[in-house]
Amino acid sequence: MNDQSNTPEDRSTRLKGMGCSRKRVEDVRFTQGKGNYVDDIRMDGMLFGDFVRSPYAHARVVSIDSAAAMKVPGVLAVITAKELEPLGLHWMPTLAGDKQMVLADGKVLFQGQEVAFVVATDRYAASDGVAAVEVEYDELPVVVDPFKALEPDAPVLREDLAGQTTGAHGPRRHHNHIFTWEVGDKEATEAVLAGADVVAEEMVYYHRTHPSPLETCGCVASMDKVNGKLTVWGTFQAPHAVRTVASLISGIAEHNIRIISPDIGGGFGNKVGVYPGYICAIVASIVTGKPVKWVESRMDNLMATAFARDYWMKGRIAATKAGKITGLWCHTTADHGGFDACADPSKFPAGFMNICTGSYDIPVAYLAVDGVYTNKAPGGVAYRCSFRVTEAAYFIERMIEVLAIRLGMDAAELRRINFIRKDQFPYQSALGWEYDSGDYHTAWDKALKAVGYDALRAEQAQRLADFKAGKTRRLIGIGLAHFTEIVGAGPVKNCDILGLGMFDSCEIRIHPTGSAIARLGTISQGQGHATTFAQIIASEIGIPADDITLEEGDTDTAPYGLGTYGSRSTPVAGAATAMAARKIRAKAQMIAAYLLEVHDDDVEFDVDRFAVKGAPERFKTMKEIAFAAYNQAIPGLEPGLEAVSYYDPPNMTYPFGAYICVMEIDVDTGEHEIRMFYALDDCGTRINPMIIEGQVHGGATEGYAIAMGQEIAYDEMGNHKTATLMDFFIPTSWETPHYTTDHTVTPSPHHPIGAKGVGESPNVGSVPAFSNAVHDAFRPFGLVHSHMPHDHWRVWKIARDLGLHG
Amino acid sequence: MIPAGFEYHRPADLASAIGLLQDHGDEARVVAGGHSLIPMMKLRMTDLGHLVDLQDIGELRGIAIGAGHVTIGAMTSQHDLIADDRLAAVLPIIREASLQIADPQVRYMGTIGGNVANGDPGNDMPGLMQCLNASYDLAGPDGTRQVAARGFYQAAYFTAREDDEILTRIVIPVPAAGTGHAYVKQKRKIGDYATAAAAVLVGTTSASVAMTNLSDTPVWSEAAGKALAAGDTEGCVAAILAAIDPQEDMRGPVEFKRHVAAVVLRRAIDSALARRT
User: Fold this and answer.
1) How far does B253 lie from chain A, in Å, by closest CA?
2) Would you put residue A370 in left (φ > 0), alpha (ψ -120 to 50) or beta?
3) CB B182 within 8 A of CB B269
4) Which residue segments constitute the domains of chain B, with CATH numbers given?
5) Active site residues of A
């Protein structure tokens, strides 16, 4: 009772609950080099595996000769498809309903494809073994262009699918065609387009890129032949799903498989999928009876594990002369590479691309997506975005700019007159979503005011005049973007991956002395879950965040969940955390009432205690209640204080934001300088403002890279041209812009704490802002659209094609 | 990313190092900072039996400022070049160029000798050394010979150095007082090779111009220098454009590189002229 003098505000501050910029508890170990990543795991007798990879993009594998490799000291085994076939593991199912070769089965479909797995006593011997395996190839014609892949006489890539006219997502109309996905009202949309005052049309390409996390993918598989238990430590963004899939494809009972995701050095979607390396390491461990480690090199990661984007989006947008949008039409050609290994909910083969009406009230719309096989690496994962949301946001934010040009309007004003109004929420979009909440006009006006939009336009006009007068060779571009995300997948009724509903979970145990442990079905890859989820619990049940341990990633101890990607952890597992905490609070209320000798309804929660209504000096703290839970026989109540919640969200959440980029462009060299980048995010209730700011900085820097230079490029022969960090652009601190962050708060009405998720907003929103700035700089000279990435030579080419080099 | 097996040698004096090269012929290579050679070995694009590490040979390090010449030991790091105020006073262009090489971590390890000896057209120092009319001391079994930087480079990774020779020192004539200088480099990011880079010296009666990463060797053009000395900037640019032969890569197509080469060169000339006294 000694803290009676403290105000509720004082007590609340001590909890470090929601709204507090609590320092990340993870950083103590990360900043001291004490993290525990997959490659830190060392076990007695551990072996190493490494891949022989295809140098060709399309070829028959005539023969594989392992004799010389087996003579390399330390090499124990060379595994090929022939060895995996009797186990039924030479192919594996993908998350998208397709199947993928684990090791080349007769042919290869992309450069860098896994052909053989060499197992050796150390990495060096494995690497020498890889070099000694002799593979004879017979080259086949290569197709890297998805449009050419659909031509009648295009090479047949997937001979295994011969005669299959129906795939996982409906009819296939060509041997390289995977699926067609249609949403919306085609007929009505085309009628609107035919009768519209103005129709703007553009092909918007979102180029192929790669999540390229700092830590590459890898695992250690250990089969204990004594107890029959398989343990796999790996870079898994969804450890529980991996356990289930591993059980289904290997036949090992699920209780005999333990998947552990240790510290993960960034995922960004790259670590959602199942890769041949995992299967091969598991098989090698079963065969040898020893732990087997496989860790990708940077080149392996960029060449073979999941890429992102590669969407060709043909758009048509209709409007009145006054600028009111009347319809949107989109046809997307999606390049999936050699196998369809996208990580999307089963019913959404193009993810949530049907969020492509964006922040705008568009009465009618139609979207069709065709998935296509090419001789490129498989993937198509959500690189720091919810499934295909960044493609959708880039598409609509470019189409708005193109429409503004057609209408001769200011693009900020065009957005304003088309935003969904606050009073329209919940809003039914033409392509089938129910937007839960939003206040776009408030955010937009705040953003324009913050950057001094009118003054910027005046300065830009002056610069343009100076340029035309020969006084400068630098132009100013003002890049606008207002994005709406759809995250938090998702309601089990329409979201599953391989049949697993996309709920998530949290289990909380309060210890007798009032501290706690919480376990979740998600897994942090740097997001700071141990920090933020403890803050949710702290606010919900009134014990300090510092007294709460948080664990994720071990399938033997954590409750089942679908993992961390698509900004789903806070919307789904965060909700589960709040719900589990509320179960505990409800029991704590009964305990408090018993201890205070009043009826349950006569006590109320007050920050960190329950107090008698009208008599706040009579209370029991959560610490006292916890102790009582374990030490008193309370009639009608079981001992202990713990709860678990499996949360099936009623809807997605819809974070939004207004981003503005001011860029200077050197017309002669194509170089640029980011003068200002303003990011306003509305992610609903803000749990930890410092972590939000860090997320925005990181995501915007990825967006900057993607817009201004990062790409996965192939030549006509299917040779990968960007397999090292020399050519694959990752900004250093020198290139990274300075960011100004801001926010509005529109809580989600259906989420227990009103949070919406923020991890991916900055990647989604910044790419169009950067790209639109480049386009805006050249708009006065007639530029309508030019594809990303806007690296030096491509920007230079814009200027040259517009005749600006004299 | 693991190299094939090799023997590692770490001789303490130059004679031992040359002896190792004689013993092992083209199976042996010397390593200085290792920033070019080690990645090539890890990619298994360079396969060699013997790696001869020069870092214990003290006589290969250091900067000596003479009356008319500066002498720099081959194992002097880029960082040491930047940090030396005496060097910056007589050859400020070396600090300006070195600061545009990679990043601080790389510059602590990367050496001027490795940079000029490797023959990589992407390296900045070879063009700069041609601009400065430096010469290289090559020590071999029969003693030391001196080769002008302007005559050293034959093709990408092919130079006038014999397999059993080690580039030990770089000798640079100090430009006349009042000479203007500039090193201008366009690159995609920190750590990248140049899309185009220009080294310019311009005095009252003479000038020298060299370009980096625009051919399979650095490009020094006597005609360009003469034109610039005569005050003919456009003639200088034209001479350089006639001498370069850029190739398309991820930095851009040939046409872009030629355009940027001219832009970068003009900017370097403007800057050098502004600094001339």
Assistant:
1) 8
2) beta
3) yes
4) 7-52 (3.30.43.10), 60-173 (3.30.465.10), 180-275 (3.30.390.50)
5) 237, 384-385, 760
- Nearest-Cα distance to chain A for B258, in Å, is 11
Taking CA A649 as the corner, what is the angle to CA A647 and CA A655, rounded to the nearest 5 degrees?
A: 125
Q: Using one digit for the tens of pLDDT, what is the confidence trace for A85-139?
A: 999 999 999 989 999 999 999 999 999 999 999 999 999 999 999 999 999 999 9
- Separation between Cα atoms, residue A244 and residue A236, nearest integer Å: 13
**Rounded to whole angstroms, how far apart are CA atoms A796 and B256?**
7
Radius of gyration of chain A (CA): 28
Question: Given pLDDT bands bounded at 50, 70 and 90, which one contains residue A6?
Answer: confident
Say if residues B126 and B101 touch (Cβ distance below 8 Å).
no
Is the CB of B259 less than 8 angstroms away from the CB of A729? no
CB contact (8 A) between residue B5 and residue A128: yes
The tens digit of pLDDT for each residue in B132-170 reads: 999 999 999 999 999 999 999 999 999 999 999 999 999
CA-nearest of A688, A634, A639 to A509 is: A639
- Crossing angle, helix A792-801 and helix A761-778, to 10 degrees? 30
What pLDDT score does A1 carry? 45
Question: Residue A249: its pLDDT value, please?
Answer: 85
pLDDT (tens digit per residue) in A468-498: 999 999 999 999 999 999 999 889 998 988 8
Distance in angstroms (rounded) separating the CA atoms of residues A734 and A562: 37
* Residue range B197-233, pLDDT digits in tens: 999 999 999 999 999 999 999 999 999 999 999 999 9
pLDDT for res A4: 54
CA-nearest residue to A51 within chain B is B1
Which residue among A131, A791, A805 places its CB closest to the CB of B188? A791
Q: How many A/B residue pairs have CB atoms within 8 Å? A: 61
A-interface mutation test, from B35, B251, B260, B265, most A Cβ less than 10 A away? B260
The values of phi and psi at residue A242, to 5°, are -60, -40
Looking at chain B, which residue has its C-alpha nearest residue A801?
A: B256
Residue A288 pLDDT greater than 60, yes or no: yes
Q: Which domains does chain A have, with CATH numbers?
A: 8-35+504-647 (3.30.365.10), 38-140+216-264+271-304 (3.90.1170.50), 307-489+652-801 (3.30.365.10)
Question: What is the pLDDT at residue A528?
Answer: 94
Longest dimension (CA), chain B: 56
Mean pLDDT of A440-464: 98
Residues of B with CB under 8 A from a CB of A: 1-2, 4-5, 44, 103, 186, 188-193, 195, 250-253, 256, 259-260, 263-264
pLDDT in tens, B25-53: 999 999 999 999 999 999 999 889 999 99
Nearest residue in chain B measured CA to CA from A711: B250
Q: Tens of pLDDT along A575-621?
A: 999 999 999 999 999 999 999 999 999 999 999 999 999 999 999 99
Separation between Cα atoms, residue A143 and residue A158, nearest integer Å? 12
ipTM of the complex: 0.97
Q: Cis ω on the peptide bond leading into residue A789 (within 30° of 0)? A: yes
Shortest CA gap A75–chain B (Å): 14
Residue A462: which H helix or E strand, with range? Answer: helix A453-468
Question: Distance (Å, rounded) from C-alpha A789 to C-alpha A709?
Answer: 5
| B122, B206, B224, B226 from B231: Cα distances, Å | 29, 10, 11, 9
Distance CA A636, CA A687 (A): 36
Q: Which residues of A touch B197 (CB under 8 A)?
A: none
Rounded Cα distance between A497 and A512, Å, is: 39
> What is the rounded CA–CA span in Å between residue A595 and residue A616?
15
